[in-house]
Specification:
The chain has 10 helices and 17 strands. The chain is α/β, with parallel strands linked by helices and about 375 residues long. The strands form 4 sheets. The protein has a 6-stranded antiparallel β-barrel with strand order 12-15-14-13-16-17. A hairpin with a 4-residue loop joins strand 10 and strand 11. Helix 1 runs parallel beside helix 2, helix 1 packs across helix 6 and helix 3 packs antiparallel against helix 4. It is globular and about 70 Å long.
Length: about 375
């Protein structure tokens, strides 16, 4: 019997999850490794020279080699059906709805946690663990589990973990939250995993190894070009300035690849899937101060009905900006102190109080200029 209990570790074959397993093994946990096959590269129709990401044969072998060396069991499970239902279908549907999805958050919420915990129960595991750079603690005063930024702010992944439910956080271990990436690579080398220590990070979407989401959409939706067809580029006043290939192939804030020569830089500022119309304009027309998020998850507090100052991030690499946040029913309203560029429906907004995640949700609506003059927006300006 282990000192701390049995833990199921999600192992991708990379350095982070390998060191996660090794640390927990050293700490006295009874470790069980699991690699989840979420995607079949042979069905992607893409040849990139070699398979990459967590679903390649090389990665699975790397994960198993770590388990064999440290002496704990390792399993490979096929969850392509679950992954397809939750992640790939949602990814496709969002683009067809004129929004820009974030598949990594969907994967974390519905696959790497919900599906992982189901396997943990079957294997008699008390906990699950992953190699994310973030921290979890139980706040006795609040009676809640709280997600916080990792020590390595360059690698912090708390943004993609906002959707995890309290009951799932209660069984989650994140051993890397107190380390930096260079420290983890040094530890891997010291443990004898020299090749893993030098293994590069994977940044592409796992099911789009060539990073060409337009090709992927065409592959997933037969006759997509015919069904959608070309549409109009228009200015804010409705003036037609060009023709585009179809609204699913563009994102809010996009500047390159528009094929427009108007004498000044223009960006995609609005996508209307009903009319297949894309509005373009100068950068100042991308600026907005308010948004509404739905499908929310409250992390630090059980509700946010009272206005509360926070720092809001509207994309993973966003540094965040001061804002006010408040809850109305099942929606979060966010008013930024200053206008933010390219607030994008389909992406996630994550609210922070210091290093703690307050809440998160999917950006559903970016409010127009009249709504931006609301009292809350004026109050938010006092935060800057």
């Amino acid at each position: 019997m282990s000192r701390h209990g049995r833990v199921l570790v999600a192992m991708s074959g990379g350095v982070d999850s390998s060191v996660t397993a090794a640390l927990l093994h050293e700490q006295g946990y009874e470790v069980v490794g699991i690699t989840m096959k979420t995607w079949d590269y042979t069905s992607s129709g893409v040849r990139t020279g070699k398979e990459v990401g967590c679903c390649s044969l090389e990665s699975m072998n790397d994960a198993r080699a770590v388990a064999v060396r440290l002496g704990f069991p390792h399993f490979i499970v096929d969850i392509r059906e679950e992954f397809g239902d939750w992640v790939i279908e949602r990814f496709t549907e969002e683009y067809l709805a004129g929004r820009t999805p974030n598949p990594c958050i969907l994967c974390n919420t519905h696959i790497k946690w919900a599906a992982l915990l189901r396997r943990a129960d079957r294997l008699g595991c008390d906990y699950i663990a992953t190699g994310h750079y973030a921290r979890i603690r139980y706040d006795e005063a609040l009676g809640r589990y709280v997600i916080s930024r990792g020590r390595d702010l360059n690698k912090d992944q708390s943004y993609v973990l906002w959707g995890i439910a309290q009951e799932h956080l209660a069984r989650t271990l994140l051993p890397l939250g107190d380390y930096t990436k260079p420290e983890i690579r040094r530890m891997a080398a010291e443990m004898g995993f020299e090749r893993l220590a030098q293994k590069p990070d994977s940044y592409e979407i796992c099911f789009i190894p060539d990073n060409d989401y337009r090709r992927f959409l065409r592959q997933r939706v037969p006759d997509l070009d015919r069904k959608v067809g070309p549409g109009k580029f228009v200015l804010k006043d409705g003036t037609v300035v060009g023709t585009h290939q179809g609204y699913p192939f563009y994102t809010i804030g996009q500047r390159h690849g528009l094929g427009l020569a108007l004498g000044y830089p223009v960006y995609v500022t609005h996508i209307d899937p009903e009319t297949n119309t894309i509005t373009v304009g100068p950068r100042e027309e991308l600026l907005r101060q308010r948004l509404v998020a739905r499908q929310i998850n409250l992390v630090k507090y059980p509700d946010l009905h009272e206005e509360r100052p926070a720092v809001g991030k509207i994309r993973y690499k966003d540094e965040g900006a001061p804002c006010l946040v408040w809850q109305e029913g099942d929606a979060l309203h966010v008013a930024f102190a200053e206008s933010r560029p390219a607030i994008t429906p389909g992406q996630a907004v994550v609210l922070y109080e210091g290093d703690d995640v307050l809440a998160g949700g999917w950006i559903h609506e970016v409010l127009d200029a009249e709504a931006e003059n609301a009292p809350a927006t004026a109050a938010a300006k006092n935060l800057s």
